[in-house]
UniProtKB/TrEMBL annotation:
It comes from the Archaea. This is LWR-salt protein. It comes from Natrialba aegyptia DSM 13077. InterPro entries: LWR_salt.
Amino acid sequence: MHGQYVFTVRVRLEPAQPSISLEPGSETTTVTVRRGAPEPGTDGWRFFRDTLWRGEVADEAHVRRLAEDWLDLPVESVSFSELQVDTAYFDAMKSAIAADLDAFNAETVSETLSKYLGSSIRVQDV
């Protein structure tokens, strides 16, 4: 079972020593960050509920701070790309959501997935 959140993060590079400088205009770069998705039903598995809304970052300042912790670099912006899962993860996720719909303020699993992830779920078995 495998799941991961994929984000596009724009980071700012800052020299650690005063004698080092960066070419003007090259201080920022964009990277793809993959964050493992906790197994459904375990601690932290509701990350999507707490951070996303309709497939977008719900509170950019909060997610920017999270990304700074993940990368230990200053982050200028973060955008959510997708949740990549295999079939086993997706089935377990839907079961965990169904068992606790009240936590998502939703009536169905489909409503929950749409509300928080929009169409940004990719199910693929490799």
